[in-house]
Amino acid sequence: MSTDTATHNTDWTQDLLAHRAATLPQAINMAGAEGVISFSYGLPDEESFPAADLSQAAAEVMSQAAPAALQYGAPGPLSAYLVDFIGRDQKRTVTPANLLVTVGSSQALGLVCQLLIDKGDYIIVEAPTFLGAVRTFLNAEAEVVETPLDDEGIVIEELDKLITDLKADGKRVKFIYTIPTFQNPTGVTLGLERRKALLAVAKKHQVMILEDDAYAGLIYEGEVPPWLWTLDEDDMVLHCGTFSKVLAAGLRLGWIGGPPAIVSRIAALKVDGGTSPFAGNIAAQYAKDGRLEKHILKLRDIYRRKRDRTLAGLERYMPDGARWNTPQGGFFIWLELPESVDTVKMLRDAIAAGVNYTPGPACFASRKGKNTIRLAFSHLTVDKIDPGLRILGEVIQRQLANGN
């Protein structure tokens, strides 16, 4: 093939792209570089996957319900499990009409955007927040604006003022995206009174809430308040859940709950033939006899040890002026370094030294927070955490010594 022909074909392929796709970044290699201790991605602990039990559940499904599991359609047994679980855990009565099983909670976020967002609509997110959600919202051509967090979650007064100001400027705010429990990336949990206040603000302004609850059950001490969806009496909340963190990410199973009138419209947008009935039936078979709840108890111990090892390493290796939180659950610790440290610029040196992390600006829609880092402790083996933090501490100390 001549160079001219190759160039022509490349230009022609580029012309095929929708304008919103033309500037998309390349896909991230979540495995990371070989030999680098990575605190970057909130992946589940691979050694904790209940492979043998899932294999047994698969065999049971094949012997008892193969036609339903291998055909197009929704995984009805998984919806039935969720109805039962929500009734027991949240004391909320729901029916299958309140629920839609999705390909992970990421598909749920995308479907909500398809339903609610027109180009130029506004979505309010926490600052900082889950970087994948921001990318989804931007792909939907929404305007993403931030509302601040403190150590107890969303600052309600600031949120109220933000919505008031946006509406005064003629802006359409479609929903507030929040991760109220073990927030990604900060790990903070929104208290009961603030949850009630958040619902009151949403009702006042007639703005929906999209509640992302990816780390349900992964609590390491104390108690957490009920879901926003549980507290909601005005049909203002859509609730996203997932089995990725508590069972197996590779099953790609999530769900969305909310008012039937909205859930049915979301379901109409889901044109994939149904979220894997095979995976859904296996998950339901595994979960129905209490095995999932027992497994989650084991996960709590696994991740609590990793969190505590990370906290000990931070205490040992971080410089004066560094701050971090002690999350009650979830996968992340939020690290704030002295203002002079630029964690984006520092990342190249860190990787060269053998450690990786997510720079804080990646978690802000506004890309602020240059002196912050999201540390994911979930995927690392316990023995890698202390050496990784030692390397990170040395890199930070060099940056400070160089005046960076």
Strand order of the largest sheet: 2-9-8-7-6-3-4-5
Provide a count of the helices.
Answer: 14
Distance between the termini: 49 Å
Radius of gyration over all CA atoms, rounded: 22 Å
- In terms of quaternary structure, what is this? single chain
Element-by-element helix/strand order: HEHHHEHEHEEHEHEHEEHHHEEHEEEH
* Count of domain modules: 2
CATH-defined architecture of the largest domain? 3-Layer(aba) Sandwich
In one word, what is the shape? Answer: globular
Description:
The chain has 404 residues and is an alpha/beta fold. The chain has 2 domains: 32-49 and 294-401, Aspartate Aminotransferase, domain 1; 51-289, Type I PLP-dependent aspartate aminotransferase-like (Major domain) (Aspartate Aminotransferase, domain 2), CATH 3.40.640.10. The protein has helices spanning 3-16, 51-64, 66-69, 76-90, 104-116, 131-139, 156-168, 192-205, 228-231, 260-269, 277-287, 291-317, 343-353, 382-401; strands at 37-38, 99-102, 122-127, 143-150, 153-154, 173-178, 208-212, 237-242, 254-257, 323-324, 332-336, 355-356, 358-359, 372-376. The strands form 3 sheets. An 8-stranded mixed beta sheet has the order 2-9-8-7-6-3-4-5, sandwiched between helices. The longest helix is centred in the C-terminal third of the chain and has 27 residues, at 291-317. The chain is globular and about 65 Å long. The protein starts with a helix and ends with a helix.
